[in-house]
Amino acid sequence: MSEVSRRTHVGRRSFLKMAALGTTAGVIGIGANSLTRQADKSEIAKPYPGSKMVKSICSICSVGCGVIGEVVDGVWVRQEVAQDHPVSAGGHCCKGSDVIDMVRSHCRVKYPMVKQNGKWKRISYEEAFDQIATQLKKYRDKNPEQVMFLGSAKDSNEQSYYISKFAAMFGTNNLDHQARI
């Protein structure tokens, strides 16, 4: 390497530091006022006119934290943590706080669908149950160990017992639940 190229050579770590510094300087230079605006007091107090607040319990796991859902015309549009709830005491886990995004997602599946010829087609619940039963029977006949059953932390002891009995009747010991936070 010549003396000139050695002086102009920038290592990967140095480049990343300079890029981060340049990005930070650019963001600070733009200023927050040009990107956002201050919400007025009426927007903060009631962002959805005509909405009602409904106390409920988060159903993601078995803890049962308190939530206050904001509902407009029967649609859940926003949620807050119930500060006075005896279980959660004003707290939320990452699952419970993110559930509103899952519910409002544009790609959420709302009814049974099957892919035919590369396109998704809506089917009835009866068709879906029949297809699932047929496929489960094929798996059981071929090798029941290729199937796994998952319970939920919301299941009662009795429900968990029935799931374990069903898995045993199916012919597999592959059984688990989702109580991992």
UniProtKB/TrEMBL annotation:
Gene3D superfamilies: 3.40.50.740, ADC-like domains. SMART domains: Molybdop_Fe4S4. One of its GO terms (molecular function) is formate dehydrogenase (NAD+) activity. Its EC number is 1.17.1.9. Residues 51-107 form the 4Fe-4S Mo/W bis-MGD-type domain. Its cofactor is [4Fe-4S] cluster. PANTHER family: DMSO REDUCTASE CHAIN A, TUNGSTEN-CONTAINING FORMYLMETHANOFURAN DEHYDROGENASE 2 SUBUNIT B. Belongs to the prokaryotic molybdopterin-containing oxidoreductase family. This is Formate dehydrogenase-O major subunit. It comes from Campylobacter majalis. The lineage of its organism: Bacteria, Pseudomonadati, Campylobacterota, Epsilonproteobacteria, Campylobacterales. The gene is fdoG.
